Automatic annotation (TrEMBL):
Pfam families: MarR. This is HTH marR-type domain-containing protein. GO terms for molecular function: DNA binding; DNA-binding transcription factor activity. It comes from the Bacteria. It comes from Heyndrickxia sporothermodurans. Residues 3-137 form the HTH marR-type domain. Transmembrane segments: none annotated. The keyword Transcription applies. Keywords: DNA-binding, Transcription, Transcription regulation. SMART domains: HTH_MARR.
């Protein structure tokens, strides 16, 4: 692949990602970016977790996770659960409001992606899906 082509592809991907993030953020009623939403999703899927565990799972530093956790707690989207036997052990747990925020995030995400893909034909969507699956398989095979 020519270097010019790969840079055009990278630029197009970055443009699409940035545009989708801007559209999502504008529509989402909570003052949050994508990272805290990923944390909410992990808490919903796996239940209460320590911040260190969450940081490792989502790939953030401990400092970034502390900031995200504080923001989520302040917004009432997660709560801190203290271990009765060891008060140093604190787990984050998604609240009912956090569950609601996650539902809204998924609805907005679907809408943003539907708007993105509405310019493609059925055949182009199938091609794109095959390409994405090939890329995902390539990433997973390198792990």
């Amino acid at each position: 692949m020519q270097q010019t082509s790969i840079f055009k592809l990278i630029h197009a991907i970055e443009f699409m990602n940035n545009e989708n993030i801007k559209r999502f953020t504008k529509a989402f009623p909570y003052p949050l970016g994508i990272s805290p939403i990923l944390v909410l999703g992990e808490l919903q899927t796996k239940g209460p977790q320590k911040q260190v565990e969450l940081a490792e799972t989502v790939g953030y530093t401990k400092g970034a996770m502390t900031s995200i956790a504080s923001k989520l707690v302040n917004l009432g989207l997660v709560e801190r659960l203290y271990d009765e036997n060891d008060h140093r052990t604190i787990r984050l747990n998604i609240t009912a409001e956090g569950e609601k925020a996650l539902i809204i995030a998924h609805e907005i995400g679907k809408k943003v992606f539907m708007e993105l893909f509405e310019v493609l034909s059925e055949e182009e969507i199938n091609q794109y899906l095959r390409i994405q699956e090939k890329l995902v398989n390539g990433i997973q095979s390198r792990k």
